[in-house]
Amino acid sequence: MSQSMWNSPGGTLSHKNACKEFDLEESEIIRAMKNGKLQYKENYAHGNPYFRLLRKEVIALAKEVHGEHILELKKIEYEIKKTTTEINSHKRKVSALEKKKKKLIQQRDEMTN
User: Fold this and answer.
1) Secondary structure of 78-109 in the HEC alphabet?
2) C-alpha distances in Å from residue 112, one per residue of 68, 100, 101, 102, 106
3) pLDDT at residue 2 in the model
4) Distance between CA atoms of 6 and 63, rounded to whole angstroms?
5) Would the pLDDT of 1 be above 70?
6) How many CA atoms lie within 13 A of 39 on its CB side?
7) At what angle do helices 70-112 and 55-66 cross, to 10 degrees?
């Protein structure tokens, strides 16, 4: 496997993120690593070990475990989450603007009375 895949942006992910992103069990990933289906590098973050995996191989494993539809389903779920986050952000902005407007109206009313 080319070294460039290990260094390309987005080309790798941790085994923990692979579990979250592709609905895989940690045991499935470990088994695939032992069977040679997943290449890995052991890394450490704050003294804690984790496995770095090639995204391309994790995608192939997810397809094998869950079927071809998994990637489209995950893409839709990601868009839903992203949209929800954006909606919540706008709600916070609207709330802050409403408070500001209320304060300004109150100041105006105090000055006119």
Assistant:
1) HHHHHHHHHHHHHHHHHHHHHHHHHHHHHHHH
2) 67, 18, 16, 15, 10
3) 56
4) 21
5) no
6) 11
7) 110
What are φ and ψ of residue 42, in 5° steps?
A: -85, 130
Number of CB atoms found within 10 A of residue 45's CB: 9
Interior angle at CA 65, CA 43 and CA 34, nearest 5: 40
Token reading at 56: 């391309």
The C-alpha angle 21, 27, 33, rounded to 5 degrees, equals: 85
56 touches 94 (CB < 8 A): no
Return the residue matching tokens 């770095």.
Answer: 52
Cβ proximity of 54 and 8 under 8 Å: no
Amino acid at 109: D
Q: Return the closest-CA partner of residue 17 out of 67, 43, 80, 47.
A: 43
Q: pLDDT per residue over 32-44, tens digit each?
A: 999 999 999 999 9
The SS3 assignment for 38 reads: coil
